[in-house]
Predict the 3D structure of the following.
Amino acid sequence: MAKCSLNKNTRQRQLSRYLEEDPFLTDEDLACILKVSVQTIRLDRFDMQIPELRERVKNVARGGRQLRTMAGGELVGDLVDLEIGNSGMSILPVTPAMTLSKTSVARGHHIFAQANSLAIAVIDAGAALTGAARVSYKRPVYCGEKILAKAVIKIKKGNKYMVKVTSEVKDEIVFKGKFLVFALQEEGVPQ
Amino acid sequence: MAKCSLNKNTRQRQLSRYLEEDPFLTDEDLACILKVSVQTIRLDRFDMQIPELRERVKNVARGGRQLRTMAGGELVGDLVDLEIGNSGMSILPVTPAMTLSKTSVARGHHIFAQANSLAIAVIDAGAALTGAARVSYKRPVYCGEKILAKAVIKIKKGNKYMVKVTSEVKDEIVFKGKFLVFALQEEGVPQ
DNA sequence: AAAAAATTAGTACCTGGTACCAAGAATAGT
DNA sequence: ACTATTCTTGGTACCAGGTACTAATTTTTT
């Protein structure tokens, strides 16, 4: 029974690993991956109290449904002005999902994300990457406030850009950052 | 036909309103709410190109998954080790949602977010804020790779901490950052 | 009243399951 | 070597929440 038990256990561990990675797998998918029958998968799920696909999907949907922030576009915040190769501006309203639950203070990486994505947007290139950044947070930003980020290209050398971003809430500076950005040539990017 | 058309239109508007509010409603639920037959609901959905429940839930789930990384928890990535007041480690698998659509290179602010949130997590405080950061990206990270971030507190002075974070993919350093973090006293934070 | 539009009803079929029963294979204990 | 136990597989009936399609019925328009 040892060998069989071992197989069963390792299979069940694998099963949960696969499902953690991708909860959208059907029993049939799993059976195929783990080279056992669908029934075995079902027994395994039952053993491990793992609900069926539809329930899993529902759970993910309920858990993840909140405010959108970093998801959709390439840009965090709403672009209000863009002069490619020169400067740009974006507005990010701070929603509850972006704040530390205890304090309703916006988490730093959201402010960074707005600035960083704006810095990249002003670059005149199909794609660009941040190489380095030096940022400082001047004061906390609270839920409900709107962050206006302004980016200006300061230096351009070949495919290297230095972009300065200043973020304000009602004319008060909350964040400053210098971003070193590299423009990528359209091809040549490994997959 | 005017009255009927009107009824149909208003019903369809109501339908989409109800579904926006709660995408988990079945056709039967909707039929009950709107006092028409299930078939009518189906025709309406077909008219308005609204997919069936399971598809809707899936969409929400997929959307939710992307956001979860930035929106859901306070931490970006999965904490694998944490010694509060000393060091911590987290893993962030790079999903398609995090990458520049053209190149499948992870956008910088996700890598920053993982590091930043880890830096805050290692601080021994109810809440903490990033005051400044100096970061550099050593090489692009691609979709499918897993980023292992390691944070260590280097200096502590009162409520000020200097945290160094190094992120690697398969023992190769992809990102380095120094974060200046301030611990917040539990109260006294304005709403 | 006839034509057109909208609604409802009914059927066959699909996916991804549950719940249950029985047969077959593998392993353990003796 | 043989039996008992555990694992695995197969099969069936059933369910929710649909699709796709046809046909009948009601409502509205002309």
The helical segments of chain B are 2-21, 27-34, 38-47, 53-71, 108-121. Residues 1-5, 26-28, 42, 52-54 of chain B lie near DNA strand D (CB under 10 Å from a C1').
